[in-house]
Amino acid sequence: MAIVSERASISRTTLDKIERGDSGVSIGAYARVLFALGLADHLGEIATLQNDPIGLRLEAQALPKRARLSRRLNNERQQ
Q: Contact, 8 vs 29, CB < 8 A?
């Protein structure tokens, strides 16, 4: 792992935090490790919604339960 931290230009402590999933590590450090491991092609997958079930659940909770048209729009549709 010392080789990975050296190639990624980060400390061994930071690499240990990345391995544990520490949320205090910058996204840049994660990106450098991915580049060092030859996995940079997967960098775009980090932010995809399909890989974030908690984010999807929070987003669904934020949606309104029922959407209603304003009276003006409803009247325009009926005409």
A: yes
